[in-house]
Design goal:
Mean pLDDT: 90
Helix content: 25-40%
Number of domains: 2
Radius of gyration: 22 Å
Largest sheet: 9 strands, mixed
Distance between the termini: 9 Å
CATH architecture of the largest domain: 2-Layer Sandwich
Strand content: 15-25%
Strand order of the largest sheet: 16-15-14-13-7-12-11-10-17
Length: 453
């Protein structure tokens, strides 16, 4: 069914149902309101009401950053697990002194016209579906990576953004890092000559994960809602709590989707490239061979671009070599006259002989490989997002560019799953391989496929 854009209302005001009560009553005089409540009335014209969908490990960082923004209220917490909502409200109460409305089904929040923004931090398979449904309901979206589960979803989400004209920012927060922006600008200006190759890496020491055993879903979990767009299957222990990432492809996108998104994006940014023309991958499982992890835990990927440029990805999920030295993650950019190492904490500029000529430390406090993330980059990324909504400021990671970085992840996973290298159309991103193209999309639960625009 074709969607009618005119059905969707633009924005909300303080007089919308439910908001008046939150500020202490429409007819209360300013001297009877708290300073915070009065400031909320004064700033009503640009107040943004947020709803959080997905309250797992990313929540603490996103919550702290959101609460640093001006003229923002958190109205809803949404999660398919009861205890996640309870825990989130305890954190909000502690940090801000109020509670959000509890909701398990995000569709009920989409119906609330008071909500302006959805922050989406669900498992990967929900991201594109949730973001598109949010835009259909006239919401802006801050979308955690990966922005899509597969290449087809990347197409759909960009089409939705253009059609509904909503602000959609992917949560690759290093795009809002001051030291990273500074050195990328210098690279583009030629400080290392012609930049031709980037090596992106991630090292961690992830432990053994439980083997899947069919069992009843844990108390408080709506397993049907958790599965969302994915085909239905029986619950297995301990799928819902992060291990969905390693239990096949129904919900997650592997370590590449989990972390390569960040570093590959830095490589793309530095080299000023878009879609590659050639992809090859070597990946396998090397650790805890008998545990429940069903995919690679080591991956080496090579992406070739025009003008003799390339990006390498080295992902070591369960071997933390270099974690102490380099923070476990980063990107090295090679040029004809030097090189640069960039991570979330610093950059190091080297001449062609390998001598350091500049080392700039970041004042940002942002996590490296620790679960949850969060910090100054996240705050700045969210500030850029809200500034774009209010003032039309250019996004640091608009969805139409973010999906190109995301495509590198999908190509790597497709190469691994199809056991083949392949060529790519640099303009369209389409794969020149019929068997690989079978993984362009996925099977969807009936009734959950995203509407095409």
């Amino acid at each position: 069914m074709k969607l009618n854009r005119r059905k969707f209302l633009k924005g909300t005001t303080l007089a919308s149902a439910g908001i008046i009560t939150a500020v202490g009553g429409l007819y209360a005089s300013p001297n009877k309101l708290s300073a915070k409540s009065y400031s909320r009335i004064i700033g009503a014209n640009d107040r943004l009401n947020f709803a959080f969908q997905g309250l797992g490990r990313r929540l603490p960082g996103l919550l702290r950053s959101t609460l640093k923004l001006k003229n923002v209220d958190i109205l809803y917490f949404c999660d398919v697990m009861d205890k996640q909502i309870t825990k989130a409200n305890k954190q909000l109460n502690k940090l801000a002194g109020y509670s959000a409305i509890s909701e398990k089904d995000i569709h009920n929040i989409f119906d609330d016209k008071n909500i302006d923004v959805i922050i989406m931090a669900t498992p990967d398979h929900w991201h594109a579906y949730g973001a598109c449904k949010a835009m259909e309901a006239n919401k802006h979206v801050y979308l955690e990576k990966p922005c899509s589960h597969n290449m087809m979803e990347s197409e759909v989400i960009v089409n939705h953004q253009k059609y509904f004209n909503k602000v959609v920012q992917m949560g690759n927060q290093q795009r809002s890092s001051l030291h990273t922006k500074s050195i990328i600008k210098k690279i583009h200006e030629g400080i290392i000559g012609k930049a031709y190759n980037a090596v992106a890496f991630y090292n961690n020491n992830r432990p053994r994960v439980p083997n899947q055993i069919v069992t009843d879903p844990p108390e408080g979990l709506d397993w049907n809602l958790f599965q969302g767009p994915a085909p239905r299957r029986k619950y297995t222990h301990d799928t819902w709590d992060y291990n969905w990432r390693w239990y096949g492809w129904d919900y997650g996108t592997g370590e590449a989707g989990n972390n390569a998104t960040h570093e590959l994006d830095i490589g793309r940014w530095a080299l000023e490239v878009d879609y590659p023309n050639d992809v090859s991958v070597f990946a396998q499982k090397n650790h805890f061979i008998d545990d429940g992890w069903t995919m690679y835990d080591n991956m080496e990927a090579k992406f070739k671009f025009s003008k003799n440029k390339s990006i390498n990805w080295n992902g070591r999920s369960r071997n933390a070599f270099g974690k102490q030295r380099d923070g476990g993650r980063g990107t090295i950019v090679y040029g004809t006259e030097g090189s640069v190492f960039i991570n979330r904490g610093e950059y190091k500029l080297y001449d062609i002989k390998g001598d350091i000529i500049e080392n700039v430390k970041s004042f940002d406090k942002e996590s490296g490989v620790e679960l949850g993330g969060g910090g100054d980059m996240t705050t700045r990324h969210l500030q850029n997002f809200t500034d774009s909504i209010r003032k039309g400021i250019v996004l640091n990671s608009p969805i139409d560019d973010a999906v190109i970085s995301q495509s590198l992840v999908h190509y790597a996973n497709i190469s691994y799953r199809s056991d083949r290298s392949f060529k790519i159309d640099e303009k369209s991103g389409l794969i020149y391989d019929k068997d690989a193209m079978k993984l362009w999309s996925r099977k969807y639960e009936p009734g959950w496929k995203i509407n095409s625009i």
